[in-house]
Design brief:
about 775 residues; alpha/beta; Immunoglobulin-like; 7 domains; seven-stranded parallel sheet; six-stranded parallel sheet; 16 helices
Length: about 775
């Protein structure tokens, strides 16, 4: 009984204890128990197991209820014995930390107060380990550690520094862009950061390579940028990529750049930037400063140079395709001129037949091309140019003038040879030189300009003018003086060298003097051609004195024969077979020379009677007058005794009279005598009076000294001759020469000596008798 009582008591006691125990109240958010207010950045599922009532914002909910919207919720839960209240905040916004309103994820610098705020759910935000609230204000300068936790723990260095934000480059404080050729050391004193091209650097950072560096520095509030350029290259100005130091000329756009450190570059005093472009023509002064200010001239000109052509009178040649005149090229100054691919000089003349492609390029690189022609003369208008000194060449030229009646210009040295007035009467178109005497004075440019003007004036009026130059063979260089010097092409003139006799056949040429004759001959051909070309082209610089032939013109006498190898040069002589002998090589070349046998008596015989009358008037020989005054005795033939200069032949008057007595003794029975004195050796009562008295005593009439003896032989071919040996005997008819005042055949001059057996075999030799 007692045992049952204990059991019953135990059961009752347990029941009472169990029944009286308090029920636990636990709340779970997303599976985790909580009993305090909390924040979440995601949906919140609420669950519980206790028996009691749960309300959200006064609304009863069941276990498993999920909060999905951002907001603040009041959660009340419990039973009759216990009731709890907590706040739940849902904020799904991404967690962000802001300093002065800017999202910050790393170091932050500022020289102003710093306000700390955030969005999203932060578990905590601490400054130097101390929790802080939203909108916390950092007021004092310093360096702070800001730590915050959302899903992870993060830290940010915060620097507040109200000191000026300044940076030092190589020890000098600057806020300006700069250039240098040296290494750069960067330092600073402010609290903040410095970056070079976006990369943070430490104090004392050195830049040592060429390049452009963007330096960014400051704190959270202030940020500054400067550009540092390091260029260790040598400073140079580049014009279109080329180094230029003084002047640059171009016809293209000009791009200006530079290397190295240059303090400034200005155009017309205005600063320019790299790769500055000049597109307008003009002159530009570039000023630049390296160690000192210097200047550079840029001259841009894209205008094409002009080309025009002038004839020898300075007139523009309009019809360049049908031109037949010598020309010069006119263009802009300071240009390069090439003709048919070869460079020429300004004022160079062109005279040969052909096509000329003219290219002109100026110093800027602008060029122009024109083509001009020199065409041959399709029609020729003949003009005679006479420059003779000796008697026979003057006679040759006069015969041709009378026969052909061409207009022309005349200089003759021995004024007594012809009558200028009679020649004017017969040909009104002959212009006479204002000079007389030896044409050797043509060495003077002022004198030969007279002939130049005549030629130029003719060409001005007559584009088809063709000139025939008659000149003594020993004055052959007159061609150079008249035509070559003013650039007249050889297609416009013909030269006739005329032999005056002795000189022609006695001349010793350089290519007859040694074993290298043929080489000398070839070199002289080359030299003569070059002299002519240089004169025609205006290459030679001829002074006013014009002595371009050197101190003596005799040096050029080798050119007489050589000149005849030109197609426009002819050599007239009476006996070409008696020319000096040449070696075989030279003779073979000379086969092509224009050496012609032209006898003056044949030219005279070709004149008709009217022309002969005109010619004799010009010469001053009136046959009717001469017949009456000198040749009236028809009972005997006439013998003309020819004199020399001086009249006695330097033998003395007595010796001359002695020889004259011998002539009278030999020929007086058959002949009447007349004396033909040398033009410069006419005896008078004063000049060689003994000779004069002897002639008068013997009734020997003295013919006019100026009368050309050659003409006398043409008019009176039947007359006999005799006297001092002279080239005039070359014109004597065969067999008409009776004697010579000389020792023997060997003492005769050439070619009389060589002609002795042909023309004078019956002539005797007379010398003074003791």
């Amino acid at each position: 009984m007692k045992r049952r009582s204990y059991v019953a008591l135990f059961i009752i006691t347990v029941f009472v204890l169990v029944g009286c125990k308090k029920q636990e109240i636990s709340m779970y958010a997303n599976g985790k128990e909580f009993d305090k207010s909390f924040e979440s950045n995601e949906n919140v599922e609420l669950t519980w197991s206790f028996k009691g009532e749960v309300k959200i914002n006064n609304e009863i909910i069941e276990s498993g209820y999920t909060l999905t919207k951002d907001g603040e919720y009041e959660l009340v839960y419990g039973n009759k014995n216990i009731e709890k209240t907590v706040n739940i905040t849902i904020n799904k916004e991404k967690t962000k930390l802001f300093l002065n309103g800017k999202e910050i994820n790393n170091e932050y610098l500022s020289n102003e107060e710093i306000r700390v705020s955030w969005v999203g759910i932060m578990e905590y935000v601490k400054l130097d380990g101390v929790d802080i609230n939203q909108n916390y204000l950092i007021e004092n300068d310093g360096e702070y550690q800001l730590e915050y936790k959302d899903s992870t723990i993060k830290t940010i260095k915060v620097i507040k520094n109200s000191e000026d934000i300044l940076i030092s480059i190589n020890g000098s404080v600057t806020n300006d862009n700069s250039q240098t050729k040296d290494d750069v050391t960067i330092t600073w004193t402010f609290l903040g950061e410095v970056q070079v091209n976006g990369v943070q650097i430490e104090k004392g950072h050195v830049l040592n390579e060429n390049g452009e560096y963007k330096i960014t520095y400051g704190n959270g509030k202030i940020k500054k940028n400067i550009i540092i350029v390091i260029n260790k290259e040598e400073p140079k100005i580049l014009i279109n990529g080329k180094t230029v130091s003084e002047e640059y000329l171009t016809n293209e756009e000009v791009r200006i750049s530079w290397t190295g450190i240059i303090k400034y570059i200005k155009i017309n005093d205005e600063i320019i930037e790299q790769n500055h472009l000049i597109t307008t023509d003009g002159e530009y002064i570039i000023k630049y400063y390296i160690d000192e200010e210097k200047e550079l001239l840029i001259n841009k000109n894209s205008v094409q140079p002009e080309i025009s052509f002038f004839d020898i009178n300075g007139n523009i040649i309009e019809d360049i395709e049908n031109n037949n005149m010598t020309f010069t090229i006119n263009t802009n100054p300071n240009v390069n001129i090439s003709v048919n691919g070869e460079n020429i000089f300004v004022n160079q003349r062109f005279y040969d037949i052909g096509k000329y492609n003219v290219v002109v390029e100026d110093k800027f690189g602008n060029s122009n091309l024109k083509s001009i022609f020199i065409n041959d003369l399709y029609e020729k208008s003949n003009y005679n140019m006479v420059y003779t000194y000796a008697t026979l060449p003057t006679l040759y030229a006069t015969l041709d003038i009378v026969k052909n009646d061409h207009p022309g210009f005349m200089w003759y040295g021995r004024t007594g040879t012809i009558s200028e007035s009679e020649l004017r009467n017969s040909n009104q178109n002959i212009v006479f030189s204002g000079h007389t005497g030896d044409p050797a004075s043509l060495k003077n440019k002022a004198i030969r300009s007279e002939g130049h003007e005549y030629i130029k004036n003719v060409l001005k009026e007559d584009k088809n003018a063709f000139f025939n130059l008659y000149v003594d063979d020993f004055r052959h260089w007159v061609e150079f003086a008249l035509f070559d010097e003013i650039g007249i092409g050889s297609n416009r003139y013909e030269v006739i060298y005329i032999s005056d006799g002795t000189y022609t056949y006695t001349k010793k040429y350089s290519f007859m003097q040694g074993s290298n004759d043929y080489n000398t001959f070839l070199n002289l051909i080359k030299d003569r051609r070059e002299l002519s070309e240089n004169l025609k082209s205006n290459i030679l610089n001829i002074s006013e004195s014009g002595d371009y032939l050197g101190e003596t013109i005799d040096h050029y006498d080798d050119y007489i024969l050589i000149g005849t190898m030109n197609s426009n040069i002819h050599y007239w002589m009476q006996y070409p077979e008696f020319m000096p002998k040449l070696d075989s090589n030279i003779s073979n070349n000379m086969k092509y020379a224009n050496i012609e046998e032209v006898l003056p008596e044949n030219l005279y015989s070709k004149l008709d009677s009217a022309e002969k009358e005109i010619f004799l008037k010009i010469i001053g020989l009136d046959k009717a007058v001469f017949d009456e005054e000198y040749f009236s005795d028809t009972t005997k033939k006439y013998l003309v005794i020819t004199g020399t200069n001086p009249p006695d032949g330097k033998l003395g008057e007595a010796n001359f009279i002695n020889m004259l007595d011998q002539v009278i003794e030999l020929y007086s029975d058959e002949y009447n005598f007349v004396f033909k004195p040398h033009p410069s050796g006419i005896p008078t009562t004063i000049y060689y009076p003994s000779v004069y008295d002897k002639l008068v005593q013997e009734n020997i009439k003295i013919l006019p000294g100026r009368l050309p003896m050659e003409v006398l032989t043409w008019v009176y071919p039947e007359f006999a001759l005799g006297g001092f040996n002279s080239s005039l005997y070359m014109s004597a008819p065969k067999g008409n020469t009776l004697f010579f005042f000389t020792i023997n055949e060997t003492t005769l001059i050439s070619p009389i000596k060589e002609l002795y057996s042909l023309l004078f075999s019956n002539a005797v030799f007379i010398q003074p008798k003791p």
